[in-house]
Amino acid sequence: MSGNTIGKLFTVTSFGESHGLALGCIVDGCPPGLALSAEDLQRDLDRRKPGQSRFTTQRKEADAVKILSGVFEGKTTGTPIGLMIENTDQKSKDYSNIKDIFRPAHADYTYQQKYGMRDYRGGGRSSARETAMRVAAGAIAKKYLEQQFGVQVRAYLSQLGPIKAEQFDWDQVEQNAFFCPDVSKVSEMENYMAALNKEGNSIGARISVVASKVPVGLGEPVFDRLDADIAHALMSINAVKGVEIGAGFESVSQKGTEHRDEMTPEGFLSNNAGGVLGGISSGQDIVAHIALKPTSSLRLPGRSIDVDGNAVEVVTTGRHDPCVGIRAVPIAEAMLAIVLMDHLLRHRAQNFDVRCETPKI
Amino acid sequence: MSGNTIGKLFTVTSFGESHGLALGCIVDGCPPGLALSAEDLQRDLDRRKPGQSRFTTQRKEADAVKILSGVFEGKTTGTPIGLMIENTDQKSKDYSNIKDIFRPAHADYTYQQKYGMRDYRGGGRSSARETAMRVAAGAIAKKYLEQQFGVQVRAYLSQLGPIKAEQFDWDQVEQNAFFCPDVSKVSEMENYMAALNKEGNSIGARISVVASKVPVGLGEPVFDRLDADIAHALMSINAVKGVEIGAGFESVSQKGTEHRDEMTPEGFLSNNAGGVLGGISSGQDIVAHIALKPTSSLRLPGRSIDVDGNAVEVVTTGRHDPCVGIRAVPIAEAMLAIVLMDHLLRHRAQNFDVRCETPKI
Amino acid sequence: MSGNTIGKLFTVTSFGESHGLALGCIVDGCPPGLALSAEDLQRDLDRRKPGQSRFTTQRKEADAVKILSGVFEGKTTGTPIGLMIENTDQKSKDYSNIKDIFRPAHADYTYQQKYGMRDYRGGGRSSARETAMRVAAGAIAKKYLEQQFGVQVRAYLSQLGPIKAEQFDWDQVEQNAFFCPDVSKVSEMENYMAALNKEGNSIGARISVVASKVPVGLGEPVFDRLDADIAHALMSINAVKGVEIGAGFESVSQKGTEHRDEMTPEGFLSNNAGGVLGGISSGQDIVAHIALKPTSSLRLPGRSIDVDGNAVEVVTTGRHDPCVGIRAVPIAEAMLAIVLMDHLLRHRAQNFDVRCETPKI
Amino acid sequence: MSGNTIGKLFTVTSFGESHGLALGCIVDGCPPGLALSAEDLQRDLDRRKPGQSRFTTQRKEADAVKILSGVFEGKTTGTPIGLMIENTDQKSKDYSNIKDIFRPAHADYTYQQKYGMRDYRGGGRSSARETAMRVAAGAIAKKYLEQQFGVQVRAYLSQLGPIKAEQFDWDQVEQNAFFCPDVSKVSEMENYMAALNKEGNSIGARISVVASKVPVGLGEPVFDRLDADIAHALMSINAVKGVEIGAGFESVSQKGTEHRDEMTPEGFLSNNAGGVLGGISSGQDIVAHIALKPTSSLRLPGRSIDVDGNAVEVVTTGRHDPCVGIRAVPIAEAMLAIVLMDHLLRHRAQNFDVRCETPKI
Questions:
Q1: Is the pLDDT of residue D319 over 70?
Q2: Does residue C1 belong to the interface with chain B, where contact is any CB pair within 8 Å?
Q3: Which amino acids does the record list as binding FMN (chains A, B, C, D) (predicted)?
Q4: Is the separation of the CB atoms in B311 and A264 below 8 Å?
Q5: What ipTM score was computed for the predicted complex, to two decimals?
Q6: pLDDT tens per residue, range C160-172
Q7: Is residue A142 a contact partner of residue A136, using CB atoms and an 8 Å limit?
Q8: Rounded Cα distance, A285 and D80, in Å
Q9: Cβ neighbour number for residue A171 with a 10 Å cutoff
């Protein structure tokens, strides 16, 4: 199979470039009978949409999604759901200047090497604009999982550059421009971003995504372990450089007595596993963390080469996110929801009932 | 597709439990004409084999692999390669005592929940014993990649619990029981492990895996990015809780000017990307790191429940690795090689030539 | 993977119902650099389009296809190609009367049984309208195969009900409304269809599809044999009930001496194999035949049941093809081209050169 | 994915050549809890086994299958089932003479062209010996389908060369060497085969396969229609040149009023559809027919070429089936069972209940 489809039973196949006519995807494998309208998808699209705060790119994109098929009289029919977002605010002229050069840390160089050509306008297919369709498709998975089982998939920004969220309150996450659960850090983040903008630089971020009320037993060892598919899906998001499940890299310095999540008749006593044991969900919260690199599009000049191999200096104008991590929150939720949905279907295929019990016998 | 196959064109499908008759796998998609014998696979199997030092389990397993098909007159024929390792030293009696209880941090609980039953002998399918076939299959990929393109896939232990390798020398890696590239830390590690064994505890580890001379252009955006498939393959290894590409989680606190790998006509000036840009290999070394949790099988008692939900105390006797990370070195190499091989075939399918040049135009 | 994608490397994923907003598909895996415009696809779409003669449905559908992505400055970029056809002439009122009944030999009954609901308008997803996207996607494969290797994929009507084409002239195929290679049978077919229309009945047809100048060596034994994938693709076309490769069912009464295609230094002496030996293309013409059932939508009343299981009499009004086989000609070409394209990519993946020689050493 | 795996959720991946050490396969996706022993598989293997009558090859193969994994305490565990048959009676010397020539109608030529080399011993991977593993894997699917739903998958020989079975009695099928349901034709077939053997020639056959009590709703339109997957699976069997569903090629000359299977509250009045409507099972019997070409290995000399392109005369000695069709009966059953099993799992994934009712509302 080619590279633009994810999932085995609940599949999302996407198309579209940053400055093409439209972005779209086909969601195949959604069970029939789910009440679904464009509004259900728009909410998350709007959370991802640029221009929501002065800390994200000021591009104005309507990002209005259309459902082209698979829904009849307000309900899914079990046939493929075609989704489309027409591109509006394109401003192609912004990009003509990078036609023949490779922006450092962008995909310009590798796309040119692989394909021998590239749609250089705004990064073409490699633009994070592509993630809009992930969010739209993920919203379908999120709605199904929540309606059927009460599964909730939510993400937040756990670290912005040097600033870590320390207190935690889900209610705060949607109340600030950073999706930060620690209200006490918001003004610090605002000041940090303001200074960063002035400097013309960018910064990385850490996003955490959590799924609660996950059915027990999801995951297909040994290669399609739930955590392996989660790692695949999250690492496929633009700018992601690392994925952790549960304790993640902290496990390296943990002793066995510290890491192992002991069990009692009342349930688990800790969750270093992040909700996955042996590649199968345990019924605890699924917890994953991702590292996003800083935006590579900077006003500050950088050394690079042009298509003929000559040294050039690159300065990226145009409108860009100083921290792509912020807008990755709904994207991370979408990818985790897509993986859970796919594994829910795979689990059912073996005729297992789906149990969302407190994780005990 | 079910969960025991990895890869799209170069596929590995495996079977076998810790204490069954045999482990095996089918390697499909290996091009014809590769000189191949069991010895080629045995070398890496022996690197993974237990009982190699007093720091790994003292189980004695011959782990002698047989090639059952796909090789004729010493060369691969392009037909599927059947591999098998017969299980010898099984000692099933060691395990009867855990028949009805769930060992903390093991897959006992989730397998029982998913399948309603389980082969409890040594963890059955969830045992790390399964990784022997990964190593055997990976050795085929490693040999093909090296012979055709000079690609080298090598791993080492970069951290054992609190002890980090600081100096680096590839030549040292195979010279000590820890696959540690820093000879100055070996005796410290030996003492640490000795104390750990005495204590009856276990510890996590960090393994780094590097592929050099990788062709430019491997990877199929957007979902089958090379780094996404690497994350999938590495996270599918038992006990792995985190995967990083290049700078990984350090990217969170990096600024754009710091992270972006600038280019000159002579090549890249740094490798925070870990050899992957936009999901496609850049020709730089592919660098990945994984976190392995500490072994869950401990002599120190832990709280758990039995199949009826009653509280029990678990003490794991039998022979176990105090640090599973050590033996993960050849496994990580195998998984990275399998992913690179698969993407090499996928790349070729589009009729691109395979270039292993210094990464410049 | 769900059921709306075909192909492993050259994949076509489609969506859309007969009376939805639009039909569309995503063609993934097309190599970069192919000159492509909507006109390239429109030609075959027009050959399939209804209302081309009085022997096909009089529905007027513009069937104007739009390329939404994957093409930049007139050439494919190697990224997914999004295609869309907006539905125009829908006349939904025509169908409200069949909302609660199952038309005999239609998919109404099975869709209702499987999904518990259905989009009954014009058959919804089960409508042959879906095949428009196959034709559009197939046109991309046809163009690539022809441009790169001179492969030609052409089909014709070899039998209409009782009337068999006996003489053969490729030049005639596009000269008559039946795609019939035997000009001497055309008026007979016209009279037959006129009588059939008067009677209110429909008739089956046999379509033959031929690919010439096919490279030697395409096909992946043992399960993904070229002929097996061709059978899959052709049987997936609406109304197809049989597929033959080469001699097909004539092989049943052939003796070995009669069937075996002997070889000489000048090439094969016959083509009972239909261009496939052991599941791999031999370089001879690929020859396949398909049987299409008569249209099930008839003015002549038929017995059926309604959703409550009560006996009903069904009379299908509306505009329908008395012989769906006629319009299947470009569809059969498209499906064969898609399979050949997919196998061409799979063949290349193993680093085999692509040879289009006369089939000898 | 490479070519040696069939199925999406119930997958069979096979390896092995005619004269290698062993044949084997991995059956992945079998639900846990199915009572399974080697004997369950051996019964069908023995039906396929050569040397059962004087009308099949006199090679003696034990074809004793071993279950290497996936079964614990007599029941499947949900983990992959490894199966192996060791090759015994190999007689490699029989084949050295064909090392450098291409037997007409065999895969020798195309394998050499594709892979640049081949295991010429007995056809290597292209030998029908490979089908032994299909039969073993299919027996697992057959047992599951029968135990869970009472589905029966049975095949018979409907035509041997010019001789058609006219009367029909399932009870006769296993009572004669031809799997012929018409006892009145058996002696005619015996005489025909005796004459054929004397002549040194071979003959084709038609096999019919029927699945009864099939659940309603199996099949994933539009590309993974049940009939399309059946066509794929049956056409992938060695020597098969045609596949029909239901009326098959008779549909070509049928009128709509004749072909459409009318329904009444008591059920369908006919089964021209062969149990599949719109690619989804209707609950009627699934009926498929396949055409098998005559064996290509003949004592009668045939013209061919050698690897250097020189004209040669080929005479095939050794032991061969004068009619490969006869032994294809259990193979056809196995392939249909595998497809049904796969689609049963895919159907369940969408959370539909599995109904085996008489096909009415």
A1: no
A2: yes
A3: 125-127, 238-239, 278, 293-297, 319
A4: yes
A5: 0.96
A6: 999 999 999 999 9
A7: no
A8: 28
A9: 8
pLDDT in tens, D204-213: 999 999 999 9
| Interchain CB contact of C33 with A (< 8 Å) | yes
Q: How near does any CA of chain B get to the CA of C21, in Å?
A: 27
In angstroms, the CA D336 to CA C221 distance is: 18
Half-sphere exposure of C348 (CA within 13 A, CB side): 22
HSE toward the beta carbon, residue D33, CA cutoff 13 A:
11
Q: Residues A234, A298: contact at Cβ < 8 Å?
A: no
Contact A345 D345 (CB under 8 A): no
Chain D (152-171) residues lying within 8 Å, Cβ to Cβ, of chain C: 159, 161-162
Q: Is D359 domain-assigned? A: no
Q: Retrieve residue C65's tokens.
A: 């296809």
Question: Is residue D223 less than 8 Å (CB to CB) from chain A?
Answer: no
D13 is in an annotated binding site: no
Chains near B (3 or more Cβ pairs under 8 Å): A, C, D
Beta-carbon separation of A5 and C21 below 8 A: no
DSSP annotation string for A299-336: SS-EEEEBTTS-EEEE---S---S-HHHHHHHHHHHHH
- Residue C168: give its domain's CATH number: 3.60.150.10
CA-to-CA dists, residue C16 to C61, C126, C190, angstroms: 15, 10, 33
C105 touches chain B (CB under 8 A): no
**Which regions of chain B are under pLDDT 70?**
1, 51-52, 54, 56-61, 89-94, 319, 352-361
pTM for the model stands at 0.96
Task: For chain A, list the contacting chains (3+ Cβ pairs, <8 Å).
Answer: B, C, D
Secondary structure class of A128 (helix, strand, coil): helix
Q: Look at C346 and B349 and tell me if their CB atoms are within 8 Å.
A: yes
Measured distance CA(A74)–CA(A33) in Å, rounded: 9
Cis peptide, bond prior to residue D12, ω within 30 of zero: no
Number of domains chain B contains? 1
| Token pair in block for residue C125 | 């997803």
- Per-residue pLDDT tens for D255-306? 999 999 999 999 999 999 999 999 999 999 999 999 999 999 899 999 999 9
Reported as type and span, the H/E element at residue B341 is helix B324-349
B vs C, Cβ pairs < 8 A, gives 35
Please state, in angstroms and rounded to a whole number, the distance separating the CA atoms of residues A270 and A260: 8
> Which residue of chain A has the CA closest to D353?
A351
State the alpha helices, DSSP H only, in chain A.
Answer: 38-48, 108-115, 131-149, 170-173, 186-199, 226-235, 256-259, 324-349
Confirm whether D89 is domain-assigned: yes
Q: Which amino acid belongs to residue C353?
A: D
CA distance D168 to D156: 10
How far is the C-alpha of B256 from the C-alpha of B262, rounded, in Å? 11
Please tell me which residue of chain D has the smallest CA distance to A351: D348
Instruction: Tell me whether residue C357 is in a domain.
Output: no
**Is residue B361 assigned to a domain?**
no
List chain C residues with CB under 8 Å of B81. none
**Closest chain B C-alpha to C131 CA, distance in angstroms:** 26
Out of C107, C269, C359, the one facing D280 most closely (by C-beta) is C107
The residue in chain C having the minimum alpha-carbon distance to the alpha carbon of residue D307 is C361
Other CB atoms within 10 Å distance of the CB of residue C301: 14
List the domain range (segments joined by +) for residue B169. Answer: 5-351
